Every structure is written in C-alpha cells, then in structure tokens.
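Posted in: Structural Biology > Protein-Ligand Complexes

Title: Requesting predicted complex, protoporphyrin IX containing FE in pocket

I'd be grateful if someone could produce the 3D structure tokens for the following input. Sequence and ligand are given below.
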Amino acid sequence: MTRTQGIPNQPVAFDDMQGLIRFGHGALVEAAFILCRIRDPKAAGAWLETAPVTSAETLPAPPDMALQVAFTAAGLRAMGLGADVLAYFAQPFLFGMTGEDSRSRRLGDTGTNAPENWDWDEAEAHVLILLYARKGGLAAWQDKILTPTFHAAFTPMHTFPTRPNDGFEPFGFRDGISEPKIDWQDARPPAKHGREDFSNLISPGEVVLGYRNEYDERADLSEADLRRNGSYLVMRQLAQDVPGLWTYLDKEADGDSARREELAAQMVGRRRDGTPLIQGRRDVAGSPRKNDFTYDDDVDGLRCPLGAHIRRANPRTGDQPHRGQGRLGWLLSTLGFRRRRDELPGRHDLVASTRFHRLVRRGRAYGSALTPEAALRPDAAKDARGLFFICLCADLVRQFEFVQNAWIAAPTFNGLTGEADPLLGNRQPFCGVASDGFTIQTPTGTGDRFAPLPQFVTVKGGGYFFLPGLSALRIIARHARQEV
Ligand code: HEM
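-- Reply #1 --
Done. Output follows.
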C-alpha cells in the first residue's frame, strides 16, 4: 500500500470495471444467478474472451440487459492460475466463507445457520454468472448467454431465480435506500469524508481495488494485476420466515395492527415505506432524502433502538461519542478516565469509525411476495422466500466480516447485552453470551425487552467471489486457453 497523502487518484476506469459496482442494475428488474463449475477450462477461456460482460461505462442509452461474471478462488485455480498469482488475493477469499470453523463462528454461521445445513456453498463452485434484464427480457437474455458453447465450458450447479425488483425486501420493507456515495472522481481527500462528522461519501478504493481508500492509501496494481479494477463480492442466501416475523409481532402487539407496525419499525429502524425513525435533521454530504440523519441526537436510542437493524449495520455517528469534547476530553474518555453524561457504558468499545466499514449492497429478493396481512392468515403460503444478499467491497475482513461480526452478530454491540440483530440473529449464544433478546429503550431506562426472539432469517448458502475488471477477465481467459 502506498500513502496517497491527499494527492488525487486517477478517476476510476469505468470501461474496465463491471457495471454492477457502479449501477447496481436496479432498473433491470429481472435477475438470475447461476453458480457453475468449469467443465473445460479451454472452452471457458474461449467463452470468456467474447462474453458481453457489462462495463460501468455510461452509454447513450442505458442497457436493457447485463452480464456480470465472478470467480471463486477455486475457479481461478481451475482457469490455470498458479499459487503465485492467487497469493495476492485476500485470505478470506482464498479460504472461502466456509473454509474455517472460526470464520463461521465469527459470522454467526452456527446452529441452524451452520454450513452443514446449507443448500450450497462456494466450495465446489468456480464461477458465478449474474444476469439482469428489463421486465420480460430475462428468458431471452438467458438463452442468448447460456448457449451450447457456454455449456461446453461450464456445468451449472445451481440456478437462482429472483423475484422482480420492486424495491421491497420480503418482510415488506423498502430496501436499497441507504447506500454509500462513492466519490468516483476522487475529488475529495478522505480526510474530508467525515473524520469529524458523518458523511455518506467514501473513496473509490473502498469498493474497487487499485484506488485510494479511506486510509488515504492505494495498492499500486500493474496493468497485468488481476485485482485491478475488481471487487470482492459476497453472496449469502438468507431465507426469511415472513409469516414467522409477522405472527410474532402480532402476538406481541396483542393483535393491534398499529402497534405491530410500530414494533416492526423499531426492529428495522425504518417504517415499511422506508421512513427512518430518526427524521432528517440536517444535510449529510452525499445522502438523499430519507437518509440524511445521524444518531447524534438519539444517543439513548429513544427514537431508534440502539440495536435496530439499520443502526447496527451502519451506526453513522453512534460510534463517535466523544465529538465536541476536544482532544483532551477524547483522550481522557478513551483511557477510561471520563465518560460523557449521555453515554451508555461500553458504547464506543466495539465500534470504530463507520466510514471504514461501508458496504455496497446489490442483493435481490427471491420467492413470491407476501404482504404482512397475508402472512398473518393461518393458511399463509410457507413458500421459500428471502434475500440473495450481495455486497461488494475492497476488504472482506474490514468491511463485510466486520459488519456481520462486530455489529450484526455481537451481543454487546453499542453497550447492549444479550442481543444480536433483531432481524438476522440466529438466537444462539455468541461466544458464550446470550443473543436472543431485543430491547426498545425507554425514558425510564429499563426498556421494553423482548426475549426469547424467534429466528426469522436462516442462512441457506453463501460464498466469497471476485468480480474482476474487464482486462483481468481477458487475461484469465487467455491464461486458460494457453495453459491447458
Ligand atoms: C434477510 C436479510 C436482511 C433484510 C431483510 C434486511 C433488510 C434491510 C432493510 C429493510 C434496510 C433499510 C433500507 C435501507 O436503508 O436500504 C436495510 C439496510 C441495511 N442493511 Fe440489511 N437486511 C438484511 C441483511 C443484511 C445483511 C446480512 C447485512 C450486512 C452484513 C445488511 C446490511 C445493511 C446495511 C449496511 C444497511 C444500510 C444501513 C444504513 O446505512 O442506514 N443487511 N436492511
């Protein structure tokens, strides 16, 4: 890593980066993901060389379909890349999401979430094909891509259909509202991204490899480096028990629908239409409406519970309890000599500055839609439904694994005890500490406590992938053709 010390980077090479990173393809409402093994590396190389992989370049007219290609570490090996090349990739990618027990424990993949109960993982897989199209266009796009040439090269192991993107996740909440805004032109040095104040801006190097990151550092990657203009892609299949969630909430609310909605909103931190429990009070750089808020004025969680899903997933200023105290105050507090009056014990212990832990989310829902009202009927369809959670980042440990472990799964997050994320928690003790509760803080200080909470989300599969830049894809293709 080289210190960039505020010197601006080159703006990102959009023509060499896969479009998913920049665009998210939300307007291409239909999507399917295909997990494959490489059957014949030479044929795979030939297919990849001419595959119409979508770049992040802006075109005169937005595309009607998109193709993105990601590899597992085993996939890169199967394409003939040697240990010398693979050694440059991140350890979690090389080991895989399920490769080590300690990783599974840290991610909360224990109990019913343990990999041995999953329907799939990346261990046997090589390539993830992501297909996107406008309404009605996916079947034709699939036929165009999955040709006999494709099948000569790859064996599909799992095809994951998704449900047309309507902006809502299966529990019924608007999703995809809060996204970090990437400073693509790298116009603002990271020091101006919110060292003193929360902003939604992050440096390109937090998502794409080879650019300046929030530490003001850049990995200098040569043109031949396969990591250049690439990103790590995390995929987890998260099954959602929609009737389970709404039945539980309805019971706790004694059948009062307004109270039920209120409880649901407290668990998420937003109402179903996306309205945050904390109303925007000020401009937050890079944030659209409904997202220009911080937790500065709600340190006790009286408006948005301290353990609500969005507060865990991105604590914004929940991690800066010493703001406004000056350097001496900060030092005294950090050394444990002083605590702010409005600070709960342990608030700042776990949480580092949020801008180092942002995720670019690109997930899609699957299964049929079920409204909360329909979910409450005794005959509610118990079909499989959930989220293909997908996120992109430059550092698997510092970004995805940190968020999943220290914020979502940790029972002591934000000074709380005995609770994990109310939506995602597996309710198993986490490192020996109970995690099956949820507290809504109240002015009296005791809070409304819900425990034991049932499990609403179960992990069904997952893997770590790498989404290479377009030149890197061509290098991989040529490599496979020459090597075999
Ligand atoms: C079935 C599983 C999940 C459901 C139903 C869910 C639902 C939601 C909803 C409704 C929002 C609010 C909308 C928005 O701000 O975009 C949200 C935000 C978010 N979620 Fe999740 N989520 C799930 C899994 C995850 C996982 C596994 C992670 C990370 C490891 C995650 C990270 C985030 C982040 C970072 C935000 C934005 C928070 C903010 O910036 O305020 N989510 N999620």
